[in-house]
Amino acid sequence: MNQLFYTPKIENGLALLDEEESRHLVSVLRKKPGDRLDITDGKGKFYAAELSECGKKHALARILTAIDETRERPFRIHIAMAPTKNMERFEWFLEKATELGIDEITPVLCKRSERETVRHDRMEKILVSAMKQSLRATLPTLNPLTPFRDVVKNTSEAQRFIPWCGEEGLPHLKNCIQHDSDVIILIGPEGDFTPEEAALAMENGFRGVSLGTTRLRTETAGIYVLLATSL
């Protein structure tokens, strides 16, 4: 598999590709009816297909075979992170986290957040591109920008962690993870969570943890906790 195409519109043995994917097929790759394609629905399946119709507005492919993506772990990882002031850094996190197999991402609005708006459509495109580039079949769930209070009060994951710098002697995250149930990890803004936010999280079942002695940028902390949780 050298190139992967994405469409959520797969039914009755047919895959309908949108204008962007179709234009790439026709104008860049010069694909023609009868050519073979590798497609994912973003929901954990790969499809081998044969192109049947191809235009610059849409393309239609006939599904030949389907196979489930092999899951790397038996639990889901959800990271709720405050977007960075420099959006490029947060977008870098989105891309790399998708390549590494994150399951769910929630941009979270905190008391000390330096960014209070995000473009959901742009973030979604970054996730799709990273999924295709890394030849994955699962598109991470991307939630809307959500207030901190709503995140901590409405989460359903059994394992809940909040790394923060306001308390010494906290156990390291990697020593707390159990690889048998879903996990959510909160990553604060560049000014960290407030003591009130940390207290609210712990009142709602979150456990305070450490990421070590070094101070990490927000997006670096996101990748670090993803790897520490996965291994």
Provide structural commentary.
The structure is a single chain. The protein is of the alpha/beta class and 231 residues long. The protein folds into 2 domains: 5-68, Hypothetical PUA domain-like, domain 1 (Ribosomal Protein L25, Chain P), CATH 2.40.240; 77-230, Alpha/beta knot, CATH 3.40.1280. Helix content is 29%, strand content 26%. It contains 6 helices and 13 strands. The chain has helices at residues 19-28, 87-99, 120-133, 148-154, 195-203, 218-230; strands spanning 5-6, 10-11, 14-17, 36-40, 45-54, 59-68, 77-81, 104-109, 141-142, 146-147, 159-163, 183-187, 207-209. Strands 7, 8, 9, 10, 11, 12 and 13 form a 7-stranded parallel β-sheet that branches. α2 (87-99) runs parallel beside α3 (120-133) and α2 (87-99) packs parallel to α6 (218-230). It is elongated, with a radius of gyration of 20 Å. 33% of the residues are buried. The mean pLDDT is 95.
Summarize the structure.
The protein is an alpha/beta fold. The chain is built from six helices and 13 strands.
Topology diagram in text:
Layout (H helix, E strand, L loop, with lengths): L4 E2 L3 E2 L2 E4 L1 H10 L7 E5 L4 E10 L4 E10 L8 E5 L5 H13 L4 E6 L10 H14 L7 E2 L3 E2 H7 L4 E5 L19 E5 L7 H9 L3 E3 L8 H13 L1
Parallel strand pairs: 1-4, 7-8, 7-12, 8-9, 8-10, 11-12, 11-13
Antiparallel strand pairs: 2-3, 3-6, 4-5, 5-6
